[in-house]
Each structure stands twice: as C-alpha cells, then as structure tokens.
User: What shape does this take?
Amino acid sequence: MIPSSLRITLIIAVICYFIIILYFLKQRALNLKYTLLWLLSGAVLGILVIYPDLLSHIIRILGIEDNMNGLFIICIAFMLMIMMALTSIASRQNVKIRQLVQEIGILDKRIRELEQKQKQERKNVGN
Assistant: This one.
C-alpha cells in the first residue's frame, strides 16, 4: 500500500507530466501522433498511482513474487515499447530524408544542366 502523502505527491507529478506534454503539443514541439504514446504511458502511470492494488494483481498474474521486481519489469517493458516506437519513427524519417536528398540532387543536376544549356545558347546567339 502506498502512503497517502506519497500518493498525493505522485498524483501531482502525473498532473505535471500531463501539463508538460500538453504544453509541448501546444507549442508544436511534439506532433500529435507522437504525443499519443506519451499520453498513454502517463495514463497508465496515473491509473497505477490511483489504484496501486491493480499493480499488485498484475504482478501476481505474471507470477512475480516481489512488487518492486514487478514494478521494475513493467517500467523496463514500457521503456522498451517507447524506444521501439521512437526507433520506428526515426527509421521512417531516415527513409524520407534519404528520398528528399536524392530528389534535391536530381533537381540540382537538372538546374546545372539547364544553366549550361542556356550559356551555350547565349554563346551561339552572340556568335
């Protein structure tokens, strides 16, 4: 059981967490689709703070003897999920950046060819 003073502190911390996430969303520091992952983890954290017995039941279902070990395992699992989601986002962005760089290279080559063609035409007109 969590002492009431600790529970109040954790509830305040979760509220601050949500305020920070929503502030970043409002300032457009985070995109909505990426913010959903952080909001989901905050919601789970909030539920576990409000109903601490739920964590004990989940840990017992998983067959873990100690609450702290179960808490660490759940935290590690959440961090792994967040890292996997962020890695997939970074990978998709890497592919998009590579495509954009290739398109810019192609456009740059076309511009140089057109400029050389124009110079040739001016030279021919001038002669």
Summary: The radius of gyration is 27 Å. The chain has a mean pLDDT of 88. The CA atoms of residues 47 and 64 lie 20 Å apart. The helical segments are 4-26, 32-50, 52-62, 67-126.
